Amino acid sequence: MDMSQEHDGPSMALIVRKDLQLSAGKAAVQCSHAAVSCALIAKKSEPRLMERWQSSGARKISLAIDDLDSLKQIMGKAKSAGLITHLVKDAGHTEIPSGTITVLGIGPAPRSSIDALTSELKPY
């Protein structure tokens, strides 16, 4: 596969709140919840996009965001753009209170659409 094709293939962004200071394991599990939920939504609502995403390596990127307000702003923009989104709310069994929003999943979606929303964010 040439690089230009890969750069434009579908991607998924997993955006983690920095202010919660989640342990590495907790963050990994919360990102996994987001990825699975987004994939299940895509399988139902956009099966061709889902197939393209899977066949091109199911690219994911994990990004950090400062706080809940910033997370909700990006979610609003993603929804307005018609992208698949899923907010993960923690069950509260371990590190943080029940109902705490930890991660936003966006996609699978065209990589350019995700990059347009997340270009300001740093890797998690």
* β-sheet strand percentage: 25-35%
Query: Which regions have little confidence, pLDDT < 50, spanning 5+ residues?
Result: 1-6
What class do helices, strands and sheet pairing give? alpha+beta
Can you count the beta strands? 5
CATH architectural category: 3-Layer(aba) Sandwich
Spatial shape: globular
Number of helices: 5
Instruction: Please identify the top-level CATH class.
Output: Alpha Beta
Residue-averaged pLDDT, rounded?
93
Described by strand count, sense and barrel closure, the largest sheet is: 5 strands, mixed
User: What distance separates the N and C termini?
Assistant: 27 Å
Write down the Rg: 14 Å
Tally the structural domains.
1
Q: For this structure, what is the CATH homologous superfamily?
A: Bit1
Under CATH, the topology can be stated as Bit1
User: Which strand order spans the largest sheet, edge to edge or round the barrel?
Assistant: 3-4-1-2-5
Q: Which series of helices and strands comes N to C?
A: HEHHEHEEHE
Helix percentage range: 40-55%
TL;DR?
This protein is α+β, with helices and mostly antiparallel strands. 47% of the residues lie in helices and 25% in strands. It has helices at 3-8, 24-45, 47-55, 68-80, 111-118; strands at 10-17, 60-65, 85-89, 101-110, 122-123.
Description:
Mean pLDDT is 93; it is low at 1-6. The radius of gyration is 14 Å and the shape is globular. It has helices at residues 3-8, 24-45, 47-55, 68-80, 111-118, and strands at residues 10-17, 60-65, 85-89, 101-110, 122-123. The chain has five helices and five strands; from the N terminus they run H-E-H-H-E-H-E-E-H-E. A five-stranded mixed β-sheet has the order 3-4-1-2-5, sandwiched between helices. The chain has a single domain, classed as 3-Layer(aba) Sandwich (Bit1), CATH 3.40.1490.10. With 124 residues, it is α+β, with helices and mostly antiparallel strands. The two termini are 27 Å apart.
